[in-house]
Amino acid sequence: MRFSKGRNFLFRIPEGRDFVEFINQFAKKNHVLIGTLSAIGTLRNPKVGYFEEDAGEYKVIPLKGTYEVVSLLGNVSIKDGEPFAHIHVALGDSEGRVYGGHLIEGEVFVAEVFIQELLGELLERKPQENGLSLWDEITL
Ligand code: ZN
């Protein structure tokens, strides 16, 4: 899939908001249909997921306390007719240990976010037999 670059957004999410929910609302409000995102900051009581292939669902890993967002990467595409953010994160604790996975939720203490909008053909997630909602694979 080829896209051209659209708008760039760089902003801070208000303290207390849920990171994932805010990104989805931001994308919807600003009509960002496709894009990539990255962020750094600090999250409280984040929950990350690990997709268990045999079960066909996410195992939820709840983390208690405040974690540094060491790295956060994601993308935005269309799911069920609306912009949907898919986000993965590495979270550091007070000992410098890092936990990570698919970000399910996390309360923002600080979050500095960069979003690169992409313009082109709509990229849509479709439910798969494996339990995930995915884009079509490309053929070469
Ligand atoms: Zn994921």
Q: Ligands in the structure?
A: zinc ion
The largest sheet is:
8 strands, mixed
Quick one: overall form? globular
CATH superfamily name? Hypothetical protein, similar to alpha- acetolactate decarboxylase, domain 2
Explain what the structure shows.
- It is a single chain.
- The protein contains one helix and eight strands; from the N terminus they run βαβββββββ.
- By secondary structure, the protein is mainly β.
- It has a single domain, classed as Hypothetical protein, similar to alpha- acetolactate decarboxylase, domain 2 (60s Ribosomal Protein L30, Chain: A).
- Strands 1, 2, 3, 4, 5, 6, 7 and 8 form an eight-stranded mixed sheet that branches.
- The longest helix has 11 residues.
- The radius of gyration is 15 Å and the shape is globular.
- The structure holds zinc ion.
- The site of zinc ion has 3 residues, from strand 5.
Chain-wise SSE layout:
Blueprint: E1 4-12, H1 19-29, E2 35-52, E3 57-62, E4 66-79, E5 82-92, E6 98-119, E7 124-127, E8 133-134
Parallel strand pairs: 4-7
Antiparallel strand pairs: 1-6, 2-3, 2-4, 2-6, 4-5, 5-6, 7-8
The structure holds zinc ion (ZN).
